[in-house]
Design goal:
85 residues, alpha+beta, three-stranded antiparallel beta sheet, two-stranded antiparallel ribbon, 5 strands, N6-L-threonylcarbamoyladenine synthase, TsaB subunit, transferase
């Protein structure tokens, strides 16, 4: 639910203030390592670009010192991988 609320707020600000809004793949912020999804599972990026859930240890996110090197996209719609609880 929090992702949806954040998306609506940020998209509204982007439209009303005429500000560009970009998205970044979360895997770029941790060196393509697994991202914690819940208590037992993590998101894993496969070689073909598919995101799966797997029982592996997640890594910490690290914000790069230079954000201009990230692959930004205008497709900001969130990816909903996990079903609602």
């Amino acid at each position: 639910m929090g992702i949806k609320v954040a998306y609506v707020i940020l998209k509204t600000l982007s439209i009303t203030r005429n500000l560009p809004l970009y998205a970044v793949n979360g895997f770029e912020l941790n060196g393509n390592s697994p991202i914690k999804a819940n208590k037992n599972l993590s998101f894993v990026l496969k070689d073909n670009g598919e995101i799966i859930l797997k029982k592996v240890e997640a890594k910490e996110f690290k914000i790069p010192s230079n954000l201009s090197k990230l692959n930004k996209t205008n497709d900001i719609l969130p990816n909903y991988i996990i079903d609602a609880v």
